[in-house]
Amino acid sequence: MDVIDRATTRVGLMVGFLAMLNCQILPAQASPAVSSGSMAGFNTATEANPGAAYGKLPIYFEANHGQTDPQVKFLARGQNYTIFLTDTRAILVLRPPKRPSPQPGPTILRMELVGANSGRQVVGIEKLPGRVHYLRGNDPTTWRADIPIYAKVHNQSVYPGINLVYYGTQGQLEYDLLVAPGADPKAITLRFEGATRLSLDARGDLVLHTADGHIRLQKPLLYQEMEGTRRAVSGGYVIKGPHHVGFHVGAYDTNRALVIDPVVVYSTLLGGSGDEIGFAVAVDAEGHAYVTGRTESSDFAASKGAAHSKYAGAADVFVTKLAADGASLVYSTFLGGSSDDWGHGITVDEGGHAYVTGETRSPNFPTTREAFSRKYNGDREAFVTKLAPNGARLIYSTFLGGSGDDWGHGIAVDTEGHAYVTGGARSANFPTTPGAFDTSFNGDRDAFVTKLAPNGARLIYSTFLGGVRYDWGYGIAIDNEAHAYVTGETLSLNFPTTPGAFDTKPYRDRDVFVTKLAPTGAALVYSTFLGGSRSDWGHGITVDTGGHAYVTGGTLSDDFPTTSGARDTSSKGHGDAFVTKLAPNGASLTYSTYLGGNEYDIGFGIGIDDEGHAYVTGRTKSLNFPTTPGAIDTSYNGWGDAFVTKLVPTGFSLVYSTFLGGNQHDWGEAIAVDKEGHVYVTGGAKSSDFPATSGALGSALKGTGDAFITRYEF
C-alpha cells in the first residue's frame, strides 16, 4: 500500500471505517432483506471537517482498471477526500486542513479487518449506466477509459459466514455486515492506523485521536424486527488494544436480522441574538427542509436575494429552506411588518413553492397585487403567503380575516396548488363563501377552514366550524380527493358532529375534535369529539392513502378513549400525549394510545410513512417518558425535552423513541416525513448544550432561545 500512502491524503479512510463501525449485523436468510446502516453522526475537531464532507459522500464506486495501486479493488472520490477499498482494508484520505497542522501533508486513516480472509472475491453489484475515463498525459497507453461504476461493493466472506456490503444513499456511504446463522459477530476486529489513540466516551461513541484533532464514531445501535416490533439488542464498541476495536453484542435470535438504529443526519440551531421558535416544518422530494416560525432577532440569518432580508418589527415571521445536509441555507427570509408577526404553518408543493400561514399585527404586512385581501381589518389578522422556489419573491400574499382577531395555524396544499388553511376566528365578518357548510359566526371564537385558489386571488370555499363557545383549528391535512381533515379543540357543547361518528356527546370540558369536510366545503363527511372527562387538545393531524386520520395532542383525562392492545391504555401523570388513528368513516378508532410519563407530556406534530408508522414530536417533562433501548438519547436532560417517537402501524408498541434536548427547556413543535422515511423535526431550544451536529448550519445557541431543525434516518 505504499503507493496509496504516498500519493493520497486525509479523507479516505474515515468513510470506509465509519461505514463499518456504525454497522448493521444481519443474519443471512434464504432471501435476505438487508436494512441500511448510515454513517451519519461522526464529529471531528479539525478544520478539514469530515462532518461537512460527510454530507457529500460518494454514491458510486469505480472498479480499479489500473488507475491506482493494484491492491485497490474499488475507489470513490469526493470533495477533499478519496476512499480506497481493498480486500481487507478501507483507506480514507483527507486533504490537509487550511490551518497550520502539526502533521505535514495529508492525514491517512486506515481501517483493517484483522484476521479477515485475504484473496476473497470483492465484486461490484448493481452496475450503473455511467463510465469514468482517465486521460492523463500524452501517452495513450497510460489512459484508462470506460471504467464501470457500481452502486454497491460486495466483500464476500470477510470472516466465516460474514459478508460486507458498501453502498451509497443520498450522498452517504453506508454498509451492511451480514452474519449467517452460527457465525460469530465477535470475530470482527478492526485495526486503526493513523490514530494516535482510541477511546470510548460516556455515550459509548468511539473517539479516534489524531494529530489534527479527533473523529467521533457514533455508538452502534442494534435491534431486531419481531412481528413488526423493534426489539433492542445490547451492543457497542469494545477497545481490544491500543489500535484494535471489536463489538460486543448481547443475546439475540440468530435466525433474525440484527439491525442498526437510526442516527441523527443533522441537527442545527437557527437564530440570532434574540429569541426564535420553529413552529412548522415541511420537506420536498430532494430532502430540503422548509421551516417557519417567529424571530425577535435583527441578526437572524437572512439570505442575500431573499424576498425580505431586513428585520421589520418587534417579531417577524421567518421562512428558511435548508440544504439537504443541513450545512447551509438555500434561502432564508423575513416576512412581516412593523409590529408582531408569527408563522404557524408551512407546506411545500411539487414545484418547491412554500406556503405559509400565521398571524400578523402589522397593517403593513407584505401583500401582493390581485391577492384576495390587501386590507388589514383588525388588531390581529391571519395571512397566507406563497413564496417563489428561490425565496426571492412572493407569488401571492393575502390577509385573511375580519374586524376581530383571527389566526392562521395549519396549512396544506393539493397537487393543483390550492392552499387549505385552518385556525381561529373572532370576527363575525370573517370571509365565508356562499354554500359553504357554515357561513354564520357561532360564538366566542370559531375554527375556520378556507381553501384558496392557486393564484391566491379568491376563495374556493371558506367556512366557520364551531359552536357557541371557544373553538380552534390547529392542524389540517388533505387526501387525494381534496377532503380536508381538521383537528383542534372545542369548548362548545353544540360543536357540529355527524350521525354515526365515533363520539357525538361532548363532556363539559375541553375536547378534541376531528372533522372531515367534503371537497366542496359544503358539508361534513364526518365530525367527532375525541376526549375524556377533563381537558383534551388536538394539535397535529395527517392522513394516509386509505383515508385514516392520525391525530396527536394532549390529554388530562384518565378516561381518554384508548383501544385494546394499544401501547399504553392508562394515563401516567399530570397530562399525557396521545396518538389516535381513526377509521376512514370516522365511526371508530383503529388504535388510540397514551404516550407519556409521570409528569406533563403533550404531542404537537405528527407524520406518517408509506408503511403506516406514525411519527410524533412534542414536549415532555417526564423523566420516565418512554424511550427505546439503544435510542440516541434515553435520558431526560433538563427543564423540558422534545421527544421523537415512532409507533408500529398497529399502535401496539414503539419502534423508536428518544429525548431531544439539553440542560434547559426544549420542545418539538412539528414533524415531517419524506418519501424515504427520513424525519425532520423543528421546535424551540433554550439549552446551551442542545445537541447539534458538526458541520451543521448552527452549532451553538446565539440568543435567549433558537429554533432547531433535526433530521433523523430510520
Automatic annotation (TrEMBL):
<dbReference type="InterPro" id="IPR057708">
    <property type="entry name" value="DUF7948"/>
</dbReference>
<feature type="signal peptide">
    <location>
        <begin position="1"/>
        <end position="30"/>
    </location>
</feature>
<dbReference type="Pfam" id="PF06739">
    <property type="entry name" value="SBBP"/>
</dbReference>
<dbReference type="InterPro" id="IPR010620">
    <property type="entry name" value="SBBP_repeat"/>
</dbReference>
<protein>
    <recommendedName>
        <fullName>DUF7948 domain-containing protein</fullName>
    </recommendedName>
</protein>
<dbReference type="InterPro" id="IPR052918">
    <property type="entry name" value="Motility_Chemotaxis_Reg"/>
</dbReference>
<feature type="domain" description="DUF7948">
    <location>
        <begin position="61"/>
        <end position="263"/>
    </location>
</feature>
<dbReference type="Pfam" id="PF25778">
    <property type="entry name" value="DUF7948"/>
</dbReference>
<keyword id="KW-0732">Signal</keyword>
